[in-house]
Amino acid sequence: MSVPRSTLVVLTSMLAIGCGTADTGDVVSDADTRSSGLTAAQRLAACAQDPRVVTGLVSKEVCAGADIFFRETFDGNGRKCGTCHPAENNTTIEPAFIENLHNTNPNDPLFVFETNPALANLENSFALFVKGNILENVDGFEDPVNKFVVRSVPHVLSMTSTLAADPTDAQTTFPPVQKTS
Q: Count of domains in the chain?
């Protein structure tokens, strides 16, 4: 998923403040596998009533970013950004966290490949459970079974500083060539 830098700033700000909550329901329902269909204006209007916004802890934009990050499934398989970047684990996953999650909530969207035969090739069990790695189809979905990369899930904290160009390095471009989106 390609995310604009401005959205990353909003999301990392939101994560640092803790706005939004991860959906930790036990079962992926039909509602969880559909896109919410909310417009930006609707999200912002809902966030205008959020106590964190009302009290000035976060902006409406940060609140809306948190809502997208932790609840939006983008018409996908039930996973959200926060599925692989859970707030309760510093926005990353590793084998110990995955094992505990699997033991306490085996129907979490992270494990949808185990319960939905159509998604059986979405993950590699060894890579996920032993290494804490996920499969990504960064080049498209025309052949997801054979055309993928295996990678760890980095945290998304402080991305605005870690993605900034190094002003002392003449070889660094602006914006940086080394993007995460």
A: 1
Q: Residue type for 130, please?
A: V
pLDDT tens-place string over residues 6-28 = 444 444 444 433 333 333 333 33
Residues in Cβ contact with 37 at an 8 Å cutoff, skipping those fewer than 6 apart: none
158 within domain boundaries: no
- Please tell me the total number of residues recorded for the chain in this structure: 181
Burial of 82 (0-12, 13-18, 19+ CB in 10 A): buried
pTM for the model: 0.69
Considering the domain boundaries, does residue 104 fall inside one?
A: yes
The residues, any chain, with a CB within 8 Å of residue 60's CB and separated by 6 or more, are 44, 47, 48, 50, 53
Task: Supply the range of the domain harboring residue 52.
Answer: 5-152
> 164 in a domain, yes or no?
no
Report how far residue 125's alpha carbon sits from residue 131's, in angstroms, rounded to the nearest whole number. Answer: 9
Cβ burial, residue 150 (10 Å; 0-12/13-18/19+): middle
Q: Is residue 68 part of a domain?
A: yes
Does residue 177 carry a pLDDT above 70? Answer: no
Is 151 strand, coil or helix?
A: strand
